[in-house]
Amino acid sequence: MRKIAVLSMVFLLLLSSGASFAEVKEYKDFKLAAVFQTAIEEPWDGAIHQACLKLQKEVGLTYEFAEKVAAADFERVLREYAERGFDLIVGDAFLAGEEPSRRVAQDYPEVAFAFGSEFTFQEPNYSVFDNWIHEPSYLCGVMAGRLTKSNILGIVAAIPIAEVNRLVNAFKEGALSVNPDVKVKVAYIGSWFDPPKAKEATLAQIEAGADLIFAERFGVFEAAKEHNVLAFGNMQDQHDLAPEVVITGPVWDMYPTVLHSVDAVRKGEWKAADLRQWSMMAEGGAFLASFHQFKDKLPPELMDEVRGLEAKIQSGKLVIPVVETELKTD
Q1: Which of 36, 61, 145, 193 could form a cystine bridge with 45, CB 3.0-4.6 A?
Q2: What SS3 class is residue 6?
Q3: Is 327 within 8 Å of 169 (Cβ atoms)?
Q4: Quick check: is 7 in a domain?
Q5: Does residue 178 lie within any of the structural domains?
Q6: Are 167 and 43 in the same domain?
């Protein structure tokens, strides 16, 4: 009787501590959905989509997505996935998607939500992430500062909000760290995806003397090719879009974030949180794209310098500051 009483007490203590006895959900029974405001060709949403596809292939979960979802339809699409019993819904909530996604999450507390957002998480089930790739952006700036002959660099970016500003500021700081004479031309195109406008901005910067361009947005490379100006891509390895001009670029790998989120949900451990650590270099969520043929074209001493800085960032010996104010043209 005494043994039974002790076991009963242990059981009650475990219950009161919040311990979970729920079974882990198998990958094959897991349902993952993604809702995107842009086409999946756009690099930001594309990074999330590619991570979801990779996980689907590796573990066999169910994955569905909706792209180019208009603001008026965003809430409806989210509710449809929630009603169909999806375990985790991911996507981008910036601007038009922010309020609808948080509203739906409140109405479906049993569903996990993880959305790209510049704001904080929302209890109990709405986590946030962002592309914390300012570290490899800084490294691209170092390369640009070393390679420029005109001492004028260009940046074509989307909208001056925190997640964009920290990338362009890091790029400039990297360039200034090795070349204090550098001047930077910045163009915000006012859109997440407008290739013609990005090309127009690139042409203007080249005319102003820029001889290397950071393509924070899609659409820069056509102009760069026409004028034989080197460029850095963003968020994905964009070498194949313009092999002759794309040196490398910051890559945002959403796989660590998606894998962590899926595993937390299926193990019953999901809680609202800021998932930023999974998008940084130390966790493999950010890195430099392959240099491809530029590995042999760039000066060996520059490659050594970049790899050395890369190792310091990964180990925590070098911390790249996060600056989220709007960058002005010099």
Answers
A1: 36
A2: helix
A3: yes
A4: no
A5: yes
A6: no
CATH of the domain at 225: 3.40.50.2300
Q: Tokens 């203590």 — which residue?
A: 13
What gap in Å lies between CA 29 and CA 21, rounded to an integer? 18
Measured CA to CA, the distance from residue 111 to residue 284 in angstroms comes to 27
Q: Digits of tens for pLDDT over the chain (330 positions)?
A: 444 444 444 444 444 433 333 589 999 999 999 999 999 988 889 999 999 999 999 999 999 999 999 999 999 999 999 999 999 999 999 888 999 999 999 999 999 999 999 899 999 999 999 989 999 999 999 999 999 999 999 999 999 998 899 999 999 999 999 999 999 999 999 998 899 999 999 999 999 999 999 999 989 999 999 999 999 999 889 999 999 999 999 999 999 999 999 999 999 999 999 999 999 999 999 999 999 999 999 999 999 999 999 999 999 999 999 999 999 999
Q: Are 279 and 129 in contact (CB under 8 A)?
A: yes
Contact 55, 30 (CB under 8 A): no
SS3 state of residue 275? coil
Q: Is residue 5 part of a domain?
A: no
CA distances from 225 to 185, 196, 240, 244 (A): 19, 15, 13, 7
Yes or no: say if 116 and 45 are a contact pair by the CB < 8 Å rule: no
**In the sheet that 88-92 helps form, which strands lie side by side, from edge to edge?**
62-66, 31-35, 88-92, 112-116, 126-129
Does 250 sit behind a cis peptide bond, omega within 30 degrees of 0 on the bond before it? Answer: no
Range of the domain at 309: 134-234+299-315
Report which residue type is found at 269: E
